[in-house]
């Protein structure tokens, strides 16, 4: 399975008093990485909203913490498509401590639902976006 990778640095605002990344910040990092993965796959969420009136929302997320990231660490977040249905995406995002030799810090499994922005009811993912998102699985990004 191919993936999208992006790097971010841990800043003071991301940490608790002990200099360790606050647990909820991983969700923010994952959100940024997903947005960039979709953009790089030519599946801009802004275009999805503007052209089709659709949005992706997080339906559920499971986070497994393995090793802490600390102030000034550089992390690499790898995003991969695990599964897709007509209305949902399942992604796996692995956060690694790039500064610390690539040790896995956190794994986040996230399920996104495609909804109509008007009534927030489930909607089918348009074919162009389905094809674009498959790039995260097929090694094209």
From TrEMBL:
<protein>
    <submittedName>
        <fullName>4-hydroxybenzoyl-CoA thioesterase</fullName>
    </submittedName>
</protein>
<dbReference type="GO" id="GO:0047617">
    <property type="term" value="F:fatty acyl-CoA hydrolase activity"/>
</dbReference>
<dbReference type="InterPro" id="IPR014166">
    <property type="entry name" value="Tol-Pal_acyl-CoA_thioesterase"/>
</dbReference>
<dbReference type="InterPro" id="IPR050563">
    <property type="entry name" value="4-hydroxybenzoyl-CoA_TE"/>
</dbReference>
<dbReference type="Pfam" id="PF13279">
    <property type="entry name" value="4HBT_2"/>
</dbReference>
<comment type="similarity">
    <text>Belongs to the 4-hydroxybenzoyl-CoA thioesterase family.</text>
</comment>
<keyword id="KW-0378">Hydrolase</keyword>
<dbReference type="InterPro" id="IPR008272">
    <property type="entry name" value="HB-CoA_thioesterase_AS"/>
</dbReference>
<dbReference type="InterPro" id="IPR029069">
    <property type="entry name" value="HotDog_dom_sf"/>
</dbReference>
<dbReference type="InterPro" id="IPR006684">
    <property type="entry name" value="YbgC/YbaW"/>
</dbReference>
């Amino acid at each position: 399975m191919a993936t999208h990778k992006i790097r971010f640095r841990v800043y003071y605002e991301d940490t608790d008093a002990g200099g360790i990344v606050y647990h909820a910040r991983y969700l923010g990092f994952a959100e940024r990485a997903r947005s960039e993965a979709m953009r790089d796959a030519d599946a801009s969420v802004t275009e999805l909203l503007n052209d089709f009136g659709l949005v992706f929302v997080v339906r559920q997320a499971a986070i497994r913490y393995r090793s802490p990231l600390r102030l000034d660490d550089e992390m690499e977040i790898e995003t991969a498509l695990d599964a897709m249905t007509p209305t949902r995406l399942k992604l796996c995002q692995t956060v690694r401590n790039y500064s610390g030799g690539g040790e896995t810090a956190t794994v986040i499994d996230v399920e996104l639902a495609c909804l109509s922005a008007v009534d927030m009811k489930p909607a089918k993912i348009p074919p162009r976006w389905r094809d674009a998102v498959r790039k995260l699985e097929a090694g094209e990004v």
